[in-house]
Amino acid sequence: MSDPQRRCIATGQILEKDLLLRFVVSPDGLLVHDIDRNLPGRGIWVSCDATAVELAVKKRLFARSAKQAVTVPEELVSSIDRALLRQCLALLGLARKGGMITTGFAKVEKALQSGKAGLLVAAFDGSEDGRQKLRRMAGSLPQINLFSNAELSQALGRENVVHACLAKGAMATKIMTAASRLAQFRGRSETNTEVPE
User: b/e string for 55-88 if b means 16 or more Cβ within 10 A?
Assistant: First the structure.
């Protein structure tokens, strides 16, 4: 089994793979963000943080690490942000298809009261009153406030989704992990943080 730790080329820190982004260089020299970490080629690892990626681009560390000329795509940081966001929303969509998601204030409230919920998701642009009430009810339950009402609605195939929760289980953990990576990339230490600037 491969070593679960790698060194970030920007900061020099040795970190768990889950805290890093993997890149590979394509045969024609283009830098590719390997979001699923399964593309062939030698991995280049950078902390899952927009600032670290910007530093690696500015100091030409990708080419140095690859020991070859590397074409870095324009707007690399924003394309990584979009890819991490898409990954989160796709997982939410899968959870919906699997019947693991409850939406709507009253239904989410009921799920929280019953103790069946494993993860609370709230649109950052929804009503503050409703979010506060459910957040208090959720207590120490993991919570995600990274997505807009429009993003949640599109992912879950419903109109005006502000509140949702996931049943306990592997999918809730998977979504939490993906959301944590997105929050970390955006410079937030945890997913319970509030609205993107």
Answer: bbbeeebbbebbeeebeeeeebeeebbeebbebb
